[in-house]
Amino acid sequence: xxxxxxxxxxxxxxxxxxxxxxxxxxxxxxxxxxxxxxxxxxxxxxxxxxxxxxxxxxxxxxxxxxxxxxxxxxxxxxxxxxxxxxxxxxxxxxxxxxxxxxxxxxxxxxxxxxxxxxxxxxxxxxxxxxxxxxxxxxxxxxxxxxxxxxxxxxxxxxxxxxxxxxxxxxxxxxxxxxxxxxxxxxxxxxxxxxxxxxxxxxxxxxxxxxxxxxxxxxxxxxxxxxxxxxxxxxxxxxxxxxxxxxxxxxxxxxxxxxxxxxxxxxxxxxxxxxxxxxxxxxxxxxxxxxxxxxxxxxxxxxxxxxxxxxxxxxxxxxxxxxxxxxxxxxxxxxxxxxxxxxxxxxxxxxxxxxxxxxxxxxxxxxxxxxxxxxxxxxxxxxxxxxxxxxxxxxxxxxxxxxxxxxxxxxxxxxxxxxxxxxxxxxxxxxxxxxxxxxxxxxxxxxxxxxxxxxxxxxxxxxxxxxxxxxxxxxxxxxxxxxxxxxxxxxxxxxxxxxxxxxxxxxxxxxxxxxxxxxxxxxxxxxxxxxxxxxxxxxxxxxxxxxxxxxxxxxxxxxxxxxxxxxxxxxxxxxxxxxxxxxxxxxxxxxxxxxxxxxxxxxxxxxxxxxxxxxxxxxxxxxxxxxxxxxxxxxxxxxxxxxxxxxxxxxxxxxxxxxxxxxxxxxxxxxxxxxxxxxxxxxxxxxxxxxxxxxxxx
Amino acid sequence: xxxxxxxxxxxxxxxxxxxxxxxxxxxxxxxxxxxxxxxxxxxxxxxxxxxxxxxxxxxxxxxxxxxxxxxxxxxxxxxxxxxxxxxxxxxxxxxxxxxxxxxxxxxxxxxxxxxxxxxxxxxxxxxxxxxxxxxxxxxxxxxxxxxxxxxxxxxxxxxxxxxxxxxxxxxxxxxxxxxxxxxxxxxxxxxxxxxxxxxxxxxxxxxxxxxxxxxxxxxxxxxxxxxxxxxxxxxxxxxxxxxxxxxxxxxxxxxxxxxxxxxxxxxxxxxxxxxxxxxxxxxxxxxxxxxxxxxxxxxxxxxxxxxxxxxxxxxxxxxxxxxx
Lengths: 697, 324
Hints:
The complex is a heterodimer.
Chain A: H1 2-28, H2 39-44, H3 52-58, E1 75-87, E2 91-92, H4 94-100, E3 106-117, E4 128-136, E5 140-149, E6 153-166, E7 187-201, E8 207-227, E9 233-254, E10 258-276, E11 295-321, E12 324-350, E13 358-371, E14 374-386, E15 389-414, E16 417-444, E17 449-465, E18 475-494, E19 497-510, E20 519-531, E21 535-548, E22 555-568, E23 575-594, E24 599-620, E25 630-642, E26 646-658, E27 663-675, E28 684-696
Antiparallel strand pairs in A: 1-3, 1-28, 2-28, 3-4, 4-5, 5-6, 6-7, 7-8, 8-9, 9-10, 10-11, 11-12, 12-13, 12-14, 13-15, 14-15, 15-16, 16-17, 17-18, 18-19, 19-20, 20-21, 21-22, 22-23, 23-24, 24-25, 25-26, 26-27, 27-28
Chain B: H1 2-5, H2 8-34, H3 53-59, H4 61-67, H5 86-90, H6 94-99, H7 113-124, H8 137-140, H9 159-162, H10 166-176, H11 178-183, E1 188-189, H12 199-202, H13 225-228, E2 238-239, H14 241-245, E3 256-257, H15 268-273, E4 315-316
Antiparallel strand pairs in B: 1-3, 2-4
């Protein structure tokens, strides 16, 4: 890490020195750049390679949109799309419908996309306002505000509100269905709200301070489980409230040869969970445990986690000459948390004590803390020694550890009073270090053919606390050593055809986990054809094969995906067609071990043979004047065979009728249908119909 | 010292590349002097000069009109490019203005990706969004800036307008990444087709130090997944090591899956036991987490969804067994 920091500082020092030289030159010579350029530089970059000031002024992340149109009057452009949706009765399992689609009947602001540019005036708050809102009224809605005053500030705010409903019977203990109480012990009905804001000052200038605030929350209810010492599982209600506030501030320095960003931030975090039972529950044990019938009459849990931390980031790019680019970043973060748990269980409860006794009340109290300082960084360089040759090298390092400790106190009561207690202290440490070094050479063999080749080396180590049943050491050590050969090519025989290929071959010596990438071959090919008559055709294929031949592991994984897409977008706009088809095949074969029943050679075979297609056609229907309706239809289908066969269809059709140049009405029909033969009880089907009005500004 | 040894290759390559570059002008000079024609050779062609945007507009009226609504038109007001914004990207145009030959003007669309990028990056290289550019997939695969960004279109069809909208971003990315787009058609997916997320919510198409152009977390070096799923990032009193050391894709298909919770297996127990599955600790291969976590009878259905009990599977602050 020290080396990385040193390299970054060195780069910064050189950059400032180079910048000063350039600035001197710039003052002396205001002539166009090309006159001072070497011929080869001219060819590579006809743009102003030696005009630092011009470049830094052009370097606005988002210049005032269309400001150049320099209108004297205010303008308001955009679209407002409002409508009402009707959803039919859901056939099949409504909970699965809500877990996947979750659309309901009602009024919606389908889309709002407005841009306001006030008349130019010195006292304007902003030169432009962009407001976008999407799907308000639906479970997934977003809003975005982008306002800026040229060269003074830019404010961007993004808000999204995503409902997360998940209640799938297959994701639970299936025996619970016999009790008729809960079909899913891991259900959620929560809302995630993400609110990001950034205020950038002096956009377009060489120095740009900024501040940012993000708030991310998740809250709602669900079903969780309370598990006793006998592994009896009691499904109980759960209140969830999770939240995180992030404050960031920094400064960007953007010069012709150098960009540097330094950022400092802080984060506060909380994760609260309240669990409570409602009436007597027998749990999911269908037989007595050590001759006793277990039950829970009252259970609650209060779980509070509080955290905070600060983080520092530095990243930059540096181009000391026109043929060298250096990139680097360094991150340091230090989050920490404290946790408190209070849990009460009343009924007939088995104790965790070795005496195998049963108690009327069990009370658990836990205090814990953890901290995870992390430092990571990377540096990369591109050198273009001659026009057709590029060398790219990079080195990355990531180092972190998680120190934690806790004390669990357990009290057991009989009706006569305190019957036993247990105190369990814990300290743990997870320590990880990972590195990656990559070297690649790219050669433009001809103007039409580029090839590249290189080598990547990955290495690292991880020390983690051992599992429950480990009897050897309190910690385990895993190592990562991987050698990867890299190759790729791009062939562009004409401007209308582009072929890309990418190949990786790895000889893994060690990997952290049995299922990790060890000896793998990865191949990807992609072609894009721009055909006559505005036809665009795209074919791609991906292949990955991984094997872990280590003793005790027989892992083979193969994934192959082929995909084709066609776009026909004729210039007369009377008809358009977009269609694609993808076939993918995944096959994972690995042995696994179970104690009970004893079998060291169980086989986990996962197969997913998947075909998916989507199509959307749009036809302009005959009409008079402005009333030229458009009909679009299509949809998508997914059909899979293998370990979880599925059929998921989403056909759709839409009729758009312009009434005036500013008003359109539309009707939109859709159907959702899911069928999974192995989990037939999770199928559903539903029609949706939406009608609305679209106002065009 | 062992770690330092791993840097020998990149350092050597750097030195070689820089040396080659240093030698290149000398070779070129020698070549030029050898090829220098005799005094009787014809005079060299006139040196190109700036023709000005008005000269361009004389023939390319439509392009000039639409370009006037493009953000790059701001260059016309730049003190160094005033009146010659077209030539900021196309190079000096006087020869082309005289000959009207396409050979006398730079057309970025007809250049190699490296040259096209060089034109764009002469202004845009030193920007925060381009940190890590050379490690990004697009740069490595020679996907030029102009594959996604157009300069002359205007209105809703322009890349500037399309890339301001979630649906426009997703459509553009999906036009090449068709397999990824197809994954979102599966029942369990991130809400990208619904418009709640854009491809750029997770990926930075310009650059990234992470594989697959993934964005990093706003609070540190973790993958950008924790920007939304911050409760999974830790620190935890009791860690589940792969959450910290491996990618989320070890267990999840981030684009879409037919399996609930976007898991890579149809039922959780397979996913768990594929790792927790070796008596030896450590295993001969040196991999982690092999010791089976408990003595459950896996024939009993109640044990087959491990996360029913081990509910804090991403990390717990109260239970070593990740039970609460």
